[in-house]
Amino acid sequence: MLLPYGILEMCGRQFWIEPTRYYDISQFANKFLPPVSKTILFNKVLLLNENKKDSMANIKIGHPFINELLFQAKLIDHGLGSKVQIFKMKSKKKFRKRFGYRTKYTRLQFESILTKQSFKNFDLLIEK
């Protein structure tokens, strides 16, 4: 049996999200985030496939988003990715330049898919 999955929009990109898996998001580290081990809610759900045994295909598609669903994630870690080396050279001009950088990333573990009705103060928990 397949796990339920959804397509979520974060940081201008779309991610295939399955509960109980973790993801490294590169552009998320620059924005203000709560400290490690806090729970974050995401409301920009584009698609949800529930994959239940009784129904063959139970797919919800948003226009553009599904308003009644939330993804709950736990912030695991902030870190630096692998180093990227950049080397520039112009032939016959004796120009050589070498530099590099390490991208910042945020590791999120998605725990569950929630409904809007399970929160009383829904408007206070999400960012619009």
Automatic annotation (TrEMBL):
Domain of life (superkingdom): Eukaryota
Pfam families assigned: Ribosomal_L21p
GO molecular function, one term: rRNA binding
Cellular localization per UniProt: Plastid
Entry keyword set: Plastid, Ribonucleoprotein, Ribosomal protein, RNA-binding, rRNA-binding
Residue runs in coiled coils: none
One of the GO biological process terms: translation
Coarse class of the protein's main subcellular location: plastid
Record GO cellular component, one term: plastid
HAMAP family for the chain: Ribosomal_bL21
Family as reported in the entry's similarity comment: Belongs to the bacterial ribosomal protein bL21 family.
Annotated protein name in UniProt: Ribosomal protein L21
Organism in which the protein naturally occurs: Eustigmatophyceae sp. Chic 10/23 P-6w
Species lineage: Eukaryota, Sar, Stramenopiles, Ochrophyta, Eustigmatophyceae
